[in-house]
Structures are given as structure tokens and as C-alpha cells.
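Reproducibility note. Readers wishing to regenerate the assembly model reported in the main text can use the exact inputs given here. Chain order matters: entities are listed in the order in which they were concatenated for prediction.
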Amino acid sequence: MKTRLLAVVACGVLLASVPAQAHHSFAAEFDSANCKDFSGTLTKVDWQNPHAYFYMDVKDASGKTESWSFQTYALITLKRAGLERQVFVDNVGKEVWVRGCIAKNGKKNYAAAGTMKFPDGVLRQVGQLQD
Amino acid sequence: MTRDMSRRLAAAVAVALVACAAAGLAAQNAPAQDGPPYAIGVMPPGGAAPRLSDGHPDFSGLWLPNGAGQGVSGRYGVDPAARRQFDPKVTPEAPPSFQPWALAKIKAMTPTELELSKSSVNCQPRGVPAIWLQNPYSTQLVHKPGLLVQLYEVLNNFRVIHTDGRPLPRFPEPLFHGNSATRWDGDTLVVESVGFDERTYVMPNGWFHSDEMKVTERYSRPSLNYLIVEVTVEDPKVLTRPWKSAPRRWTLASGDIYEFYCTNNRELEELQTLREQELKGQK
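Running the prediction on these inputs yields the following C-alpha cells for the assembly.
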């Protein structure tokens, strides 16, 4: 059942990602060959244009926790896709999952978020898909 | 990702690919009137376009640059046809024909320089005609006899176009939105503009312009739900011949225009750092 649900979402991702509006290229700033899954605690959101930023405490393999920041779409793009600021606010302190790509300029713990899951388990596109 | 999750995701992708292929086949095989099974499809034309008290079409409304009548970025289940502003198979848009020196200048830009030149990165106003060619956000039009006000969501920019027949200024100053004069061609509003700030780009591909650029915009509203904008760019210093856009459609949307002051522009800082690294040969 879960597989089927994932398949429906994945089909949507495939369909949604093909004609993405490339008004600017995240690939110039972020490394599409260096994308990772992040799981951790959402700590904060900056709801400001031209992009929102959210912060997560992420545990590495050794158990050490580091704060990461993630860039998203512009605020209005999130809103028109049904993702209001309050969704982030309500989930501060909770576990979230993010697929993100690392900044090319080497800035520490900074990435562009592509897809994201809050505890409700819904896969949401919060930034341009890069991988 | 755990091995179990990886396996599940791989299985999901495989099922999804089959499902997508099946959906595609079903769409091909299904009767045309059924349409493809998308949650967000192409807006119907709606009724006749409203008219102003002077009899001309009324372009007022909140418009989005797609065929869906709502935001489509970051959303799943959108008919690809509803994402497009035009179908290149039906109304192809020829690429601009650059003067050799202009093409060489564009080709010399590095990918990072190209990014830094984009309004979407540096938060400078897009200007005309880019605001109608490279703008994924909404535009609110307020139209009255003698006046067309364009409120651009992106960067909270606005433009006031007088449609009362006044001529172009004799000595136009360089402005991001240019200096405009208008006339009606039947139900199409023709806006001719000259005098542009040279810091803007026509397209986000390095297409810069000269002080001689002249832009002609043609606005029409063939039905309630659709606004069509066609742009012609003449710029003999940069182009070998005028460039004409495809008729680009905008759809009438519900909801409100949103505030978009660009005040937390970390992207610009990060790209400037990357450019400095490139110049030092570190990257």
C-alpha cells in the first residue's frame, strides 16, 4: 500500500519535474551531484523573500548534531502550492526529512531543499528538484 | 536512507514509471473529450471578455503566466499543457539573431556570471520586456479608460501606462520600464516603448540590450480567462533583425497578489563568493 502511495507521488514528481520553470538555475549555486537525505529536528524558519530558509539540527553518523540551513522556493510559490508559513511554525521541534543539494561555494552546512516531509508524511516540493 | 527505504523507493519508482507510461498510453488511447487524468488542467476560455465603459476590452484581473489559472510551480499532477505559456509546436518562437559582437559577449559569460546577471538572482527590476517574458509570478492589471496600471508581484514593482493617446517623450530618459505610447488596433492594445535602462536583460540567458532598444507589446483578451501578450524587440545594435515572441498566455487567477520585497538575498552573496573563488582559480 505504502509502495503504491509512494508510486503515485513519484509519478507526480516525474510529471512535475519535467517542465520546471527555470527562471534561474539552482544548478549554478548548488551541486546537483552532491545531494543528500537529511533527517533531523526543524528549529526555525525565516519567512522572507526572495527565498524562505529553514534550519534543522541534523545528527551525523558519529552522533554529533550540527545546524543546517536550507533554501526553498520564493514564499509565494510555496503558498500557491499550499504550503503556508504556519506549516513550518507548527512543526518546529519535530522530526522532518529533506532531500537537498549542497552549496557549490563550500559554505558550511548550507543546501537547497528539493523535497521535504513533515511528520504528516506528505512529500512536498519546496524547491527546485536537482537530482 | 535505510536499505528497506531504498528498496521501497526503487519499487515505487518502478511502479511509478509503469503507472506514468500506462497513464500516457491511456491518455493517448482515451477519447479526446475525457482528457488526461490531471488534478490541475488547462483553464476553459470562460465567457466573453469584459469591456470598459469606452468599449475597449478590460484587461483588469490577477494574471498568472500559465494555462492553469493558479500557481503550478512545486505542484504535482499538473497537465504539462497547463504549465506552458505557449505550445512551441503550434506557435514556435524563433531565437534572437544576435550581432556577432553581442553573441561573443554573451558566450564569454561564465555560468556564475550569467546567474549574477539575472534579475531573479540580483533583485534588480526585471524591466520591460523581461517582466512579460521571464516572470513566473502574478501580475495584477487595473484597467480604466485612459489608464492601464500593471502591478508586478515580483519585487513589488509597478508600471503606469497612459492609454490616452499621448505621444512618446521627445527626450526619453532611461527607465527600467521605458517610456510608452499606446494605440488600439481593434481589440488589441499596442504599447510602444523606448528609452530603457541598460542594466536590464531581455531574457535570463545573457541577452542584454542597447540604448536603441524599442519594444512593442500587444495585449489582447480573447476571452474572460485569457490574456495574450506578444512582444517585439527591435535593437539594431544588438540584433541583426527584430525578434518577435510567441503569443504568450496568462490566465485569470483567484486569490491575491502577494508582497515580494527582496530583502534577504543570500543567493546573491553566495554566488558572489563563488565568483570570487572562480576568479582566484580555486574552483
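We highlight two features of this model. Chain B has two domains: 1-37, 61-267. Residues 1-37 of chain B form one domain.
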